[in-house]
Every structure is written in C-alpha cells, then in structure tokens.
Amino acid sequence: MKGQLSYVIKPMSLLMVIILLVFLYQSLNTYVGRERASQRTLNLAADATNILLILANSADCMAYKSPITKGTYANIVDVNKLEEFARDYSDIEPECARNYEFGWRVTVKEIIKEDSKTSFGNEWSFGAANFSTGNAFKNKIEFWLPVAVRYSQKIVRPARMEIDLVDGELETIAGALDWTCQMGKMGRMEKSSAGVYTSIGMSYDKENNSLCLNTKIITCRKLLCEMEFEGLSPGEHMLNLKFEAPNKLVVTE
C-alpha cells in the first residue's frame, strides 16, 4: 500500500513543482515587463520636461536673449523665434531640442483671462507632423509648461507650451537614421556605420524625403538626410546605416 501511494505521490509532486516553476517564471516575466514599461514611461516624462525646458530657456531655441546683458530669461519666449519655428519646423523637430529616441510636436497657446473665464489666443505649433499608428505605436505622453511670450519690452503675455511626445517604431527608426546623419555631417561617422532592428514594414518617399510606415494608415516622418533605401516588408530586419557625404544615407540589410 505504501509503495503504491509513493508511486502515485512522487509524479504528482513533480508535476506540482513544474507548475509552480512555470507560474513563477510567468510572474517574473510579467513583473520585468511592467518594470520596463514603467521605466519607459518615466523616460518619456523626463524627456518631455527636458525638451520644453530647452525650448523655453536656450538661446539656440526660442528663449528671449537680452541685447544689453546678452543673457536669457527663464521661460520667456521670443515671439520672433516662435514664429520662425512655426514656419521652418512645421513638419520636423528643430535640431536645438531634437530627441533621437522619441518624436514630438509642441503647441504654444497664449492665455487670455477675462473676468473669471480663461481662454486661449494666438497659437503656434511645430515639430513632427505624424506619429506611429497601429502596432507600431508604443506609448504617448502629454505635458505642458507655463511660459511667457515676449512681443516687446512692454508687451509680455502668459502662455502654456504643450508637448505630445510619442514612443513608436517610426520614431525609433527615423531617430536612428537622423542620428547617423548628424554624426556623419559632424565628421564622426564618415567611414563607419550603425545598425538598427525593426519588424515593421516601411517605405521611403523620395520626393518628400520621408520614412513611411506600411500600415493601414500610412504615416510618414521627414528625415534630415536623403536615403538610398529599397523599403521593407513586414518581418524581422537588421538594418545597416552608412553615411555618405555630403547628405546621404545608404540603408542595407
């Protein structure tokens, strides 16, 4: 009887141990996945804050620079630079605050207060015109920063600078392409190349110099360098990026 019982219990114990190990493994994977997702969200929030601060406080971006002291004022935006950015960067992020991992678009809205009501007046927008969609989209964060728009010494109006920051496959690949382009222009990658992985189908719009997602909704992102690129079908791809002076990227597998 004891031998028969032992014969039954041992396989059951082994099965229970296997089930427990599988459960622990799945729980660990879920925990690691959540941790990575949380870290990615924190990175988005940190980058959104940094971009807004750079735009509002760097003289290379839109910060007002005093002609007398040659200094800038915290969170005071020069209206002339703001209009220049809205005109010159209507579909691409300005290089002074570029992020090569995520994509973003910023809108500056003047705040008008009448009695107890608050509304918005003049509005300017610049940055990426399109973002990842469908299974190429990963995450998004919206954030804003209080600023002031300076028209003249006597006219300074309150405003808010809003940002939409997107994490997606299109932003990741285009960021790698633009980073390689920038490094090449600076003479740091003239004889070398970089690599990037993707699993999303893509094509190249040569006429508009844009990288496009081949999804249900075709979205394109403007690039800094022209490309020699045949496009990709859906599936796993490891791309090699090589810069060729003065303004060209050769993309191969």
Q: What secondary-structure arrangement, pairings included, does this model have?
A:
Layout (H helix, E strand, L loop, with lengths): L1 H56 L5 E3 L6 E7 H10 L14 E12 L2 E11 L9 E14 L5 E13 H17 L7 E6 L3 E4 L4 E4 L6 E3 L3 E3 L8 E8 L3 E5 L1
Parallel strand pairs: 2-5, 11-13
Antiparallel strand pairs: 1-2, 3-4, 3-6, 5-6, 7-12, 8-9, 9-10, 12-13
Overall shape: globular
Radius of gyration: 25 Å
Give average pLDDT, whole number: 83
Could you say which structural class the secondary elements and strand pairing correspond to? alpha+beta
Q: In which order are the strands of the major sheet placed?
A: 1-2-5-6-3-4
Characterization of the model:
The chain is globular, with a radius of gyration of 25 Å. Helices cover 33% and strands 37% of the residues. The chain has a 6-stranded mixed sheet. The protein has a 4-stranded mixed sheet with strand order 7-12-13-11, covered by helices on one side. By secondary structure, it is an alpha+beta fold. It has helices spanning 2-57, 79-88, 169-185; strands spanning 63-65, 72-78, 103-114, 117-127, 137-150, 156-168, 193-198, 202-205, 210-213, 220-222, 226-228, 237-244, 248-252. It contains 3 helices and 13 strands.
